[in-house]
């Protein structure tokens, strides 16, 4: 009897662990954001030792989830980025994209992306604080929130017991704040043929949900299949569909390569590009709901029998 009870307890523990793996976990989102947006990370400015520390953190998570390295040097795709908005001595800086792959042996791949860099201590420009130079810009919403979402979706899909009908490519982009440099570099030097990408979904500033405005889902007009994909999707949050594929984040680089895109974004707020964009201001429950929505979108994309068509929206 004792052996039977022990067996049942072990089975219950396994089922509980599996159930936890199969949902978005707020505790994980908090862990990632509080790490990336801590003062010790000094705003993750491009070229800083702290942004490389953030890259190490992302790579470690990808390894934990057993994603295949899909960079040019393991998980890394290295490039140079130029600071062009202000004059600084170190205007050319080293940067990395961190790229992990779930290879399901499929013909087509869905790309999921988010940038992990921010403004550092304001010396690279773009701060909205007139006295912001020298102050740490933690970038909890911009874009530790999207990076946390990227990592949690990578964990979720990597724990599925059955192979998905599509491959999944997860990219943490560097140097977005210097002009989408990382995503431009990837689309010019892809580590997977662009023609094998059916769609790209980007997360940038998804942590400050405002129920009056809702979540913006931009890029709905970039394929005739998006309305089919969204047809039966429901969410506990309000979301608004916008047609344009262009926009101020990394999906634009893929859109310009004739790839259907979506851009998830909760909009501007008084802490945007300010030293006050901190981890405690994130709405973690809404962030979970946004990722549940995106998860449903990805799963519906993978139900499509053919590669998604592309529509130029402007």
Automatic annotation (TrEMBL):
A Pfam family cross-referenced in the UniProt record is: Peptidase_M28
Q: Which of UniProt's keywords are assigned here?
A: Hydrolase, Signal
Q: Is this entry keyworded Hydrolase?
A: yes
Q: Which GO terms describe its molecular function?
A: metalloexopeptidase activity
Keyword match Chaperone: no
The record's Gene Ontology biological-process terms are: proteolysis
Tell me where in this chain the Peptidase M28 domain is found. 97-293
Signal peptide annotation:
1-21
Q: What is this protein called?
A: M20/M25/M40 family metallo-hydrolase
């Amino acid at each position: 009897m004792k052996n039977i009870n022990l067996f049942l307890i072990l089975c219950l523990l396994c089922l509980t662990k599996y159930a936890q793996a199969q949902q978005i976990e707020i505790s994980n989102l908090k862990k990632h954001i509080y790490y990336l947006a801590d003062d010790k990370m000094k705003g993750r400015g491009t070229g800083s030792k702290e942004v490389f520390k953030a890259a190490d953190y992302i790579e470690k998570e990808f390894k934990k989830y057993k994603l295949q390295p899909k960079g040019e040097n393991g998980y890394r795709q290295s490039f140079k980025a130029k600071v062009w908005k202000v004059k600084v001595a170190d205007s050319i800086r080293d940067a990395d994209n961190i790229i992990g792959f779930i290879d399901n042996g499929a013909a087509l791949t869905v790309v999921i992306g988010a940038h992990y860099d921010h403004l550092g201590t304001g010396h690279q420009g773009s701060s909205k604080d007139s006295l912001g130079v020298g102050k740490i810009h933690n970038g909890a919403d911009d874009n530790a929130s999207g990076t946390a979402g990227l990592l949690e979706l990578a964990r979720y899909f990597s724990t599925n017991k059955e192979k998905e009908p599509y491959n999944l490519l997860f990219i943490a982009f560097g140097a977005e704040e210097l002009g989408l440099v990382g995503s431009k570099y990837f689309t010019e030097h892809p580590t997977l043929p662009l023609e094998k990408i059916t769609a790209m979904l980007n997360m940038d500033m998804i942590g400050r949900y405002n129920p009056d405005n809702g979540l913006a889902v931009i890029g709905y007009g970039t394929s005739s299949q998006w309305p089919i994909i969204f047809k039966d999707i429901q969410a506990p949050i309000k979301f608004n569909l916008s047609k344009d594929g262009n926009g101020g984040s990394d999906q634009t680089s893929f859109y310009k390569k004739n790839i259907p895109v979506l851009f998830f974004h909760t909009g501007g707020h008084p802490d945007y590009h300010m030293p006050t964009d901190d981890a405690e201001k994130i709405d973690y429950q809404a962030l979970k709901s946004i990722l549940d929505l995106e998860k449903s979108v990805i799963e519906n994309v993978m139900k499509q029998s053919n590669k998604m068509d592309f529509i130029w929206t402007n």
